Batch of 4 targets.
Target 1
Amino acid sequence: MRQVGMREAEGAMGSAAAGVVHRLAERRQTVATVESLTGGLLAATIVEIAGASAAYRGGLVVYATELKEWLAGVPAQLLAERGPVDPDVAAALAEGGRRGCGADWALATTGVAGPESQDGKPVGLVYVAVAGPDGTEVRELDLDGGRDHIRAGAVTGALRLLAEHIQVPDAAEAPRS
């Protein structure tokens, strides 16, 4: 039963990644990733798609809290006051990744994959963020299951968040009457 569930989760991740990669390539835009709880799974899911090099700039895995500050530019005071699992931290991760990687868009993940809670935050609490030309959006996810399912859900959630932003036609792409 567990194996079937993971295949479904992997299928959802791959499908979301394919849509994002192809849409970004059409738009001639790029994306970067900054990951905590997903530990590189988001980046790996994106580069699994043929043609990813047209859209994917690169990313950071900032699993340790201090690396969120040192590499992604998250303010030390924010981390000290709220800890790494926080919506404003997710936003700062995405914004730092966008700047640092020189991408049009950046995705970030932070949360608690388990098996135990972290700093009073429950297992399954995840924040995904997208930073782009028009600002930053953060989404809270409340995910169930083991570590693998939570990490896969975070990847899919981040990719779907980006997909929502890039599916809106630009003025140049809008049909003319």
Note: Strands lie at 31-35, 56-61, 105-111, 125-132, 135-142.
Target 2
Amino acid sequence: MKFDKTSVTVSSSCPEIEIKLAHSGSLAANVMGHNVVISPTDVWQVAAQDGMKAGAANHYVTRTMPA
């Protein structure tokens, strides 16, 4: 599991960004699948915990951002 970028910096004046990810692995999602969740720095841990509560059936992602 790795990305070709370890960080991304976006100017605060930028109103919108687009992130494109491409799967380059050969293992099936049920064996080595991962999701990426982009969240504000101050809620990343809550977002991770919320994803675990959502579980595998929901691909570890809820439909709303945790508070």
Note: The mean pLDDT is 80.
Target 3
Amino acid sequence: MSEDTTPDDAPVRFETKIAVLLRDDLAAWQRLNVTAFLASGVTAAHPELVGQPYADADGTGYLALLGQPVLVLEGTADLLRTAHRRALERDLPLAVFTAGMFATGHDAANRAVVAAVPGAQLDLVGLALHGPRGRVDKVVKGARMHP
């Protein structure tokens, strides 16, 4: 058996965690959009987290996905600011999504919106991080599972 496979009934406990934290007042379409963007940031920073490509029984191939679960949480704007600060204090790289990014249409404009505001004043609607389980847990402490 290779390193990335286990028997179907064996529990897998990852040493790291991927967490997406969303502001609790977002519309459904915004939650989905922000989650997709933030997960792509974690994936870009950590390509080793991507598993192998999929294939169905007919041999049709599909794209590879992240190889571990993504925990999606929600919290207040205050909690997002706190989580942002905690992550920076713990040297955990973050992906961020701000309210201003909803009004842009491309990556350069998104980066300009973020660059225009000091970090402590970002109007965060979501953030994502990957790191050791305990450190990530401390960053998102107080958040609840997304419904």
Note: The first strand starts at residue 16 and ends at 23.
Target 4
Amino acid sequence: MRDTTAPRAGELRIDAPHRDLLDQVLDKWSLSILNELCERPCRFNELRRAVPAVTQKSLTATLRRLERNGIVERRVVATRPVAVEYRITPLGKTLRGPVDALLEWADAHMPQIERARKAFDATED
């Protein structure tokens, strides 16, 4: 049975909407794309060159998810030929601090994590 009471002060509660958002914003390609867009607005092909391992299909899907969540905005540039530019939104910029904190945590604890992985993998063999 699901607890529908409000979380207590300081209690972390991760519901489906939170999981969905985190999955979309912290997925394989989103962090690399957001890192590029934090520096400057980019056109689609600039992003493809900046993140060379991403396929066109994955880049398109990732940008659409980020746009849907209000993290990135898409702007048509009136040039010949017409171009599309992506830029991070003010809401998207607020992700920088939490993402940097997660990356700092990962850097600080990577040796422990690697030891744990090796120990786990050794017991699996």
Note: The first helix runs from residue 16 to 25.
